[in-house]
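Structure (tokenized):
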């Protein structure tokens, strides 16, 4: 048995979004993300309802192997979603998003926790997932979502 201490990194960021949680949560979905992220195209989505739900599974292109996502908790009434992302040979990730209503829309607390799977690729990914990288990633996501909420179209250009 090979037991080793985890090599992991976690970051949280609070996005300020210009819509109520009930309007935002449905967009946090492997299918609906295509509405607001130009070029978003999961390889496969397994869902009884056709959108995000508990036990929804989807795959996205990644290197060195496609990533598998599993929605472990989907609680629309609480404005909460949790997903696990496994990139074989690289990382295991837990993503949580908690929405809270504000006078101007909602705040979304987005937390990623990446754990290396004990490979050089996993260790390098965790080392590169810095606070500065995460903040840029979250600001890009926040800008894209707010653009969609205001205009109903995705913000053109590549994701950051």
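Design, position by position:
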């Amino acid at each position: 048995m090979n037991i080793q201490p985890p090599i992991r990194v976690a970051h949280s960021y609070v996005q300020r979004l210009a819509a109520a949680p009930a309007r935002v949560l449905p967009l946090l979905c492997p299918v609906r993300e295509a509405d607001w992220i130009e070029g978003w195209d999961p390889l496969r989505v397994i869902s009884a309802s056709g959108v995000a739900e508990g036990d929804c599974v989807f795959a996205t292109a990644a290197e060195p192997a496609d990533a598998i996502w599993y929605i472990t908790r989907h609680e629309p009434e609480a404005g909460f979603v949790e997903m696990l992302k496994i990139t074989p040979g690289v990382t295991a990730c837990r993503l949580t998003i908690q929405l809270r209503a504000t006078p101007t829309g909602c705040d979304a607390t987005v937390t990623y926790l990446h754990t290396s799977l004990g490979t050089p690729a996993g260790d390098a990914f965790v080392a590169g997932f810095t606070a500065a990288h995460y903040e840029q990633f979250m600001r890009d996501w926040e800008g894209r979502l707010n653009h969609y909420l205001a205009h109903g179209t995705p913000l053109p250009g590549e994701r950051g």
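Reviewer-requested clarification: Residues 99 and 108 are 4 Å apart (CA to CA). The first strand starts at residue 8 and ends at 17.
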